[in-house]
Specification:
The chain has one helix and eight strands; from the N terminus they run H-E-E-E-E-E-E-E-E. By secondary structure, the chain is mainly beta. The chain has a single domain, classed as Beta Barrel (Lipocalin). The longest helix has 14 residues, at 2-15. This is DNA topoisomerase IV.
Length: 128
């Protein structure tokens, strides 16, 4: 009986925890994101407005349109894709926020037939 009361109390306490998501604070601004490709860590800087996202990487700018689904989710679509894979839209979702960063996940907006849907996570930091 004691075990049941203890487990019930723990369940009630943990169910009250809410993850902070102040997505409106991160809809626009300049951010940095660090990621790893083939074991090499790289950093990309991007500027986001209500309707556009401009990535700056290795001296090149790459623009995408933004379509907001709700305050915490949007779809990115490259404006000038150079390959077939760049034509695919990306679904972005802000999972949690802090004072100067947000944790997000991203995946292809449309699942390809007979291929697994990869979901990646990252953290973007606001650049002052």
């Amino acid at each position: 009986m004691r075990l049941f009361l203890l487990l019930g109390s723990l369940l009630i306490l943990t169910s009250c925890y809410n993850i902070e998501r102040e997505c409106d604070d991160f809809k626009t601004g300049t951010f940095e994101f660090t990621y790893t490709i083939d074991g090499v860590e790289q950093t990309s800087r991007f500027k986001r407005t209500e309707t556009f996202n401009i990535d700056y990487h290795e001296g090149k700018a790459d623009s995408s349109s933004i379509r907001w689904i709700n305050n915490c989710e949007f779809v990115l679509k490259k404006l000038h894709p150079t390959t077939n894979s760049e034509k695919d839209a990306i679904h972005m979702k802000i999972l949690s926020t802090s004072d100067d960063s947000y944790t997000f996940e991203y995946k292809l907006a449309v699942k390809r037939p007979n291929k697994p849907l990869n979901v990646e996570k990252g953290v973007a930091y606001r650049v002052k």
